[in-house]
Amino acid sequence: MNMNSMNTSYRSARLTDAEELTIMSMELYNEVVNRKDFTENRIVASLRFYEENSNMGEVLMLEYNSRLAGYAIVFRFWSNEYGGLILGVDELFIRKPFRRLGIAKTFINSLISEEKNNPLFAGVEMEGHADNDVANKLYASIGVPKNNNSFYIRLFKR
Questions:
Q1: Most buried in the list 117, 121, 127, 151, measured by CB within 10 Å?
Q2: In sequence order, which residues have a C-beta less than 8 Å from that of residue 108 and are 6 or more positions away?
Q3: Strand 57-64 with 8-12, pairing
Q4: Can you tell me the distance from the alpha carbon of 79 to that of 19, in angstroms, rounded to the nearest whole number?
Q5: What share of the chain is helix, strand, coil (3-state, %, to 5)?
Q6: Which pLDDT score is estimated for 68?
Q7: What is the pTM of this model?
Q8: What's the pLDDT score for residue 83?
Q9: N-terminal to C-terminal alpha carbon distance within the chain
Q10: What is the structure's pLDDT at 1?
């Protein structure tokens, strides 16, 4: 996936991006109150997983005017409920100096636009935290309504 729109571009992350991805991932987790207990950063493991399983998703670097502005983790899964593949955005992070420039909105709209040109998915799923008002307003403004389903996750210790 390599999309361009005005000043914003997206490319697949590479192992050479690991340091920047780690920094941005920690910035994301430090901003989200209920994720401050994350002491182990797993972004490099995610990058390696998607390099080996590209059919399941990818880590994308988001650039604005050729400068690194953020990242997104995009994944794909089959939904029986919606009758097809769902394109999911697990993490979408924009660095503070690049916020309110329309980068996140352009990114999501590009995913939706690409789908219209090459139908493959039944829908798009955006992950967000209930207390992230900015993200909630963004999703609503581009026609991605809040889903009433709740998610319950039990982690298996390794």
A1: 121
A2: 89, 92, 124, 126, 138, 139, 142, 144
A3: antiparallel
A4: 34
A5: 35, 25, 35
A6: 96
A7: 0.85
A8: 92
A9: 32
A10: 46
Residue type for position 84:
G
DSSP string, 57-112: EEEEEEEETTEEEEEEEEEEEEETTTTEEEEEEEEEEE-GGGTTSSHHHHHHHHHH
Written as six digits, the tokens of 13 are 């992350």
Cα pseudo-dihedral 100, 110, 92, 96, rounded to 10 = -20
Read off the pLDDT of residues 14-65 as tens digits, 9 standing for 90 and up: 999 999 999 999 898 888 755 555 556 788 899 999 999 999 999 999 999 9
Domains of the chain, each with CATH number or no CATH: 8-142 (3.40.630.30)
d(CA 129, CA 113): 25
Token representation of residue 66 = 């050729």
Mean pLDDT of 79-84: 92
pLDDT at residue 38, rounded to an integer: 57
In order of 31, 71, 119, the CA distances from 116 in angstroms are 33, 23, 6
